[in-house]
Each structure stands twice: as structure tokens, then as C-alpha cells.
Fold this sequence. Notes:
- This protein has helices spanning 2-16, 21-29, 48-52, 78-89, 104-110, 119-124, 129-138, 145-164, 168-175; strands at residues 36-41, 59-64, 94-100, 180-187, 192-197, 204-205.
- It is an alpha/beta fold.
Amino acid sequence: MLNKLKAGILRFQTEVYPAQAETYRRAVAEPQQPSSLIVTCADSRIDPELITQSGPGEIFVTRNIGNLVPAYGEMMGGVSAVIEYAVSALKVRHIAICGHSDCGAMKAMLGPGSMDSMPAVKNWMRNADAALSVADSLAPKGETHQDRLRRLTEENVLLQLQHLRTHPSVAGAVAREELTLSGWVYDIGAGQVRISENGERTFHPVVAKGAKA
């Protein structure tokens, strides 16, 4: 597998980098100034730069299982540090929490026994417990497994936005109107992103102006 990765590096060096060499040289010559932070899942099928068509230095990204944001003061670590640095040092103007279709973490929430052999993962996923409770409480009678997974995915994104607002750096920047927040759900198979913004619970697909959703 390392040889496959090396082959990819060589293709980047010979096919991709030459056409964008000036962009990369400019990126390293100037301090990074990303406009947004995207908190997304560690799922290998998710590529935030590709989805948003962003270049080097344009977005700050952190990834973890389930695109979770522990409430401030709980499980202080890498995610909290990234958020604080992005807001306080980099002055990002927007933070998006990006969930996705067919999420293994959300599937595990629906079948918790699958995490018994992974205690670290099971402990981490506690940060999504409330999302499962809400999803179950709102479920209509006869809801299919796929609809339940979709509902849980959305509720998890909304929950993580609530957790995000507990972080002092975020709360202060939002109060000063220097920072906005949104929740995304990326449909891998359809290439579609649905977004909840302005505190809404509904996720709307991103469409061109004037086009019908």
C-alpha cells in the first residue's frame, strides 16, 4: 500500500503541481488565512476541498469519527484545540459541521453492540447520544432503517452545532457577529450537499440561484 501512496505522490509532483506551482509557492510564502473551518467525518470518501472546490490555504479542516464536537469542558483535546485556534488565531468567519450519507459512525449508533470491541470509539460516540434520543423521539411509526439513519445523521449535525456554541471562542465571535455557523449533510452517491443555516432544523439542498431545489 505504501507503494500505491508513493505512486500518487509522484503523479501529484508531475501532473498536478506544475500547473499550480505558483499557487503553492504563494501559499507557503504567506501566512495561512482560511475563511472557514469545516468539521467533518474521518470517512475516507469525504474530501472537503473537492466538495467545496477550495485550493491550498482556503479552508481549515478537522476530521474525526462521526464529525463530532464535544461540548466545551468535556473530552478536551484535538477538536477543541482546532476550534479555538481557527476562531481565535486564524479568525475564520464561518464554521460548518459536515455529516454524510452511509456514515459508519451513525450506523454504529443504531447497532451499539458493534462497538463493544472498540472501547475508545464507543466512548467517543457518547458525544452523539442525544442525537439518537431526539431521532428516536421524532420517528414516525413504521420508519424504515434508511430513513432512521438519515434522520439520525441530520440530528447529529444539529447536536454538534449546539456543542460548538458552548465553546467560549465560538460564543464570543458569534455574539460579535464575526462568525456564522451551518450544518451540512453530504450525499456521497448523489454529489449533493444539504445545508441547515440560521438556526434552522431543516436541511436545504445547495442549488444555483433561480434553480428549483
